[in-house]
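User: We ran a pulldown and think these components assemble together. Before we commit to crystallization trials, I'd like a predicted model of the whole complex to look at. Sequences follow.
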Amino acid sequence: MEIYLDNAATTQCYFEVAELVLKVMCEDYANPSSVHLKGMEAERYVKDGKAKLAHRLKVEPKEIIFTSGGTESDNLAILGGAFANQRRGKHLITTVIEHSGILKAMQHLEEVGFQVTYLPVDQDGIVDLQALQEALRLDTILVSIMHVNNEIGTIQPLEQIGTIIKDYNKQILFHSDGVQGFGKVPIYPKRVSLDLYSVSAHKFHGPKGIGFLYKNEKAKILPISYGGGQQGGFRAGTDNVPGIAGLVLAGEKMYQNMEVNKAHVWALKQGFIAGLQKIEDVRFHGDCVDPDKSVGHIISVGFKGVRSEVLLHALEEKKIFVSAGSACSSYSKKTSSVLAALSLPEGYQESTIRFSLSEFTTKEEIDVTLETLYNVIPMLRKFIAR
Amino acid sequence: MKQSFLIKYGEIGLKGKNRYLFEDALVRQIRYRLKNLSGAFHVHKAQGRIYVDCAEAYDFEEVVTGLQKVFGIVGVCPVYKTTDQGFDRLAEDVIAFVRETYGMSNHTFKVEARRSRKNYPLNSMEINCDLGGVILDAFPEMRVDVHNPDIMLHVEIREDIYIYAKIIPGLGGMPVGTNGKAMLLLSGGIDSPVAGYLIAKRGVSLEATYFHAPPYTSERAKEKVVDLARLIGAYAGPIKLNVVNFTDIQLEIYEKCPHEELTIIMRRYMMRIAEHFAGESKCLGLVTGESIGQVASQTMQSLLTTDAVCALPVYRPLIGFDKREIIEIAEKIDTYETSILPFEDCCTIFVAKHPVTKPRLERIEKSEIYLEETIDALVEKAIQTTEVIHVR
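Assistant: Here's a predicted model for the assembly, 778 residues in total across the polymer chains.
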């Protein structure tokens, strides 16, 4: 049996979604920008898709911009937002626990003359609201704070954050990276004063290479790619119609089952945590008790003295697939900046595994994983570097 | 006129009666290298030379780059091959050759004719003079310089006539397969692929052994080693890679032996296992990427201690190289980028903070006594479960 507990890295595509993508590729393959009837039929996926997503988020269809995924949405929001508003100021605010799609874009802006404030988080990974209040300046033009953290699963209080920002200055753009939140946690961008919200389809059983950016009609951003004027001129390039169709169908399915899935995954998480507590010296990162403060599908656990990479490969031998920290960091040797921000006690920094679940995860899989950990952890602890 | 390549080889030319063995090996290696390129190639020996005749659509650059990866080739000369249809026709061909290769420009030149077919009506000196005149008439900008010409225009009168001017340098060395086979201890690092390359350059075929330690090293680390073997294989030909699961042996040593001796004892077991596979495949020596003093296990004392377990000679082509020099070669042969990918290899896990740098053989042997009861079975198991990957 293969047990896939790396759903925060990517998810298995829904079968119906894959079927629809295939159909669109093979049958409705016309360019949606073409003038003829066949082009119009392809365009319908784009139009209907925007309408459906807008309906779920309670925003306008024209406020949906399809992109290639989370990183592009983040880049478009941050770079496009900064360049469009730099006459009002050159200061941006973000947090130390953002995804690299945000942090690297911010670093790029610093290189070209912008200033960036990185907000700290508390021991549960929740952004320090006092620090946000103090960081706001007259020349602040954009604040980007993620919705759900990809490594530890904490949910940021976007509503309070939005109020603080907009009370200070309505013109400041408020962006949130919603890649781990969309479809799993209800979000209404306009109610929490969001101007920009990034989403990626492959995190909720859709295809890879497709995502979108919600952009409030009034928010001013500049495109970061230039060409044929697709997506209202904000994202040039032939629309990825099969991807869009797949994203929208996957999103619909997520929304239809959101409450059921949420309860299912939350129950699994609680059971998993209870089981893990039988192992000595484990630490759960982030708040794991309050369903308003963390999501059910991400569980970040430190096993004292066990190198996370080694545990990952030991689990892989039993066909259990997990991440050490976050999958995006497998190319660099650094300790994750999110875990560093939590100031973990001695022995836990390089010992964290992220288990991430989906609606397809079963109780049995969790039990097998627990059994495996009961066997593997003592063995690995026997051979730790002296 | 037809395109052909004249292959210049160095040391082989010095060989005596077994010279043909080296030439045949070189022909084989050239054929192997060109096998998957587009075009049709006829590789043949003629009058103490090796030629590659090209037909069909082929890519000049691709062929030259391919030939530049064959050990034993000192230079590759792009050649115009033409049949003898009288001097006037030869003159036309030479003019066309110069025009195509150099355009209209004011180079200095010298004609260097060789006439191995002695019934040709003109002798070498006459050909030099007459062709020189023809070129001067056709290209008024050009000047003759017999001492230091820009263009040395070779015209060889053999069965056919060959015209060439450029010599593109090759790698040198000896054709792979002319000097037996060796077992390379291949890690994921920078040094061992370079060591393999240098040994293969002397005509030695390679087989390799890699020590894998799951779950402490990952599948990606193994894949990286396969990629490295493939990169060396671009020069050394197909490589049989033995992937040994070393975890249990390593943990046993970790548990039973003094920690500061872990690495050196591990190295000794790696050598023993590599030597076992070397014996099975009739390899004549082991090859490692060690260089004196680079790390604790590569001091003179450590090398002596590891060598003590092997009956086969251990070749260490990098023994006197600095890291910087090794990296230069790794970059040249294109293994560097892969070598520096950040995956654990089994030498770095569990490593002691202060490993012994001057191990004494008697002490190490004494420490290994702690392993007596268990280790043979573990080594046997590691050998039995070794995965063989044919990298080509």
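Residues 262-280 of chain B form the longest helix (19 residues). That may be worth checking against your pulldown data before setting up trials.

User: Thanks, that helps.
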